[in-house]
Design brief:
The complex is a heterodimer of chains A (289) and B (122). Chain A is built from 12 helices and 10 strands. Chain A is of the alpha/beta class and 289 residues long. The C terminus of chain A is likely disordered. Classes of the chains: A alpha/beta (289), B alpha/beta (122).
Chain lengths: 289, 122
């Protein structure tokens, strides 16, 4: 079991390096995450690992420990299903019409954090056969945090980050190794435009989208806010557009503006036809009245 | 239950990997070098995946991989390199020899489970 003093040290380190607050009583979590790191550095236990960290002589060890402690919410290709759906269902359904009209397919990665999601979308499009070219698509990636956006734009990831969800084949093809980390290639970067956007404020300046990725964000909002965001996401979709949500998120019972898409993939929604809303007595007019 | 062979000359690393993947529901076997791993594959036949170090005595990981992939009629398991050779050239070489994935040490639980999910081992 982690000694109180070591626990305090690790909590403070975590907070300093990633802003996360561990709170009380997570000794088991630390132990289970740090024990494999101790073993790899040939140290007998977590206490010895902390001693070595406190000496401050091994930056790789400290980085490995911090990475292992943080809950990882920013994987490349997080959950395979939305990316499979994009490749197999959404792009084939929407791209031919956009190409015929010489218009770009517009994709919004809402709450993109440090950029793994929009870059994953870009890599997927670049590896389709035939590839979707940067001139045929616009990926708008937004986050409320300027700090996260700076990192996202830099496209520079640690050895730990590029190993979470990113196939080695894509690492080799789309990243350059630099002394500072692994940098995403310009050919991927040019698919993506980054902008600051708070999901609670108007999306009017962003325009409308064929595809919106808004995954694992709404779980943090309470019900009235969720409803407002769902309604406005629906309004930001083109009539044929798709909204992709996280596994634990659904507009069902919260907003009537969205319905499940008629496809085999989970978590995909489309705009509800106005008639369906009217029949439930919840159309816009009904609400105003 | 899926069976994973961990090939590494460090007992500490084998233990670290075992500690991570056994709770995920895998049976873990160990080998200390490439030669032992080849013997294991010949005797046991099928294994679902191999986690493979590169620097090892007797037979290194890339030699083992080359021999394994060259054996006609031998079941061909998924091979995930797990090594401190951390350059793009190392990764490209291993992929060219038939590795399916590549883990750069030091790894943590999330990295291993993310690679296993990618390869549909879990």
């Amino acid at each position: 079991m982690t000694a109180p003093d070591d626990y305090r040290y690790l909590s403070e380190l975590l907070n300093r390096s990633s802003g996360l607050y561990l709170g009380e009583g997570k000794e088991y979590l630390l132990e289970s995450r740090l024990a494999p790191i101790a073993e790899q550095f040939d140290l007998p236990d977590v206490a010895a690992l902390v001693r070595r960290m406190r000496e401050g002589k091994d930056p790789l060890l400290a980085q490995a420990a911090v990475e292992a402690m943080t809950t990882q919410e920013t994987l490349f290709f997080r959950d395979t299903s939305p990316f499979k759906a994009l490749k197999e269902h959404i792009v084939p359904a929407l791209l031919p019409a956009r190409r015929a009209a010489h218009q770009k397919l517009r994709i919004w990665s809402a709450a993109c954090s440090t950029g793994q999601e929009p870059y994953s979308i870009a890599m997927l499009l670049a590896t389709l056969t035939p590839a979707v070219l940067p001139g045929e698509v616009e990926i708008v990636a937004t986050d409320y945090s300027p700090k996260a956006l700076v990192r996202a734009k830099a496209g520079l990831y640690s050895q730990f980050e590029v190993q979470r969800g990113l196939p080695a084949q894509l690492l080799v093809r789309f990243f350059q190794q630099t002394p500072a980390g692994f940098r995403i290639a310009d050919e991927v970067r040019k698919y993506v435009t980054f902008r600051e956007q708070n999901l609670l404020l108007s999306y009017a300046l962003l325009g409308s989208f064929d595809v919106i990725f808004c995954r694992n964000v709404l779980i943090y909002f309470d019900r009235p806010v969720k409803r407002d965001v769902f309604d406005r996401l629906a309004a930001a979709l083109t009539p044929t557009g798709f909204l992709l949500l996280g596994a634990a998120e659904t507009p069902y019972g919260v907003s009537d503006r969205l319905v499940r898409a008629a496809c085999q993939y989970p978590g995909i929604y489309v705009r509800a036809p106005a008639s369906a809303r009217a029949s439930l007595g919840m159309a816009e007019g009904a609400l105003v009245a | 239950m899926k069976r994973i062979l961990v090939v590494d000359d460090s007992a500490a690393i084998r233990k670290a990997i075992r500690r991570i993947i056994e709770p995920l529901g895998f049976t873990v076997d160990e080998a200390g070098d490439g030669q032992q791993a080849l013997t294991y594959c010949a005797e046991w036949g099928s294994v679902d995946a191999i986690l493979l170090d590169i620097d090892m005595p007797v037979m290194d990981g890339l030699t083992f991989l080359r021999q394994l992939r060259g054996l006609a009629g031998m079941p061909q398991p998924t091979v995930i390199m797990c090594t401190s050779h951390n350059t793009m050239n190392n990764i490209e070489e291993a992929l060219a020899l038939g590795a399916n994935e590549y883990i750069m040490k030091p790894f943590d639980t999330d990295i291993i489970s993310s690679k296993f999910q990618q390869l549909e081992l879990m």
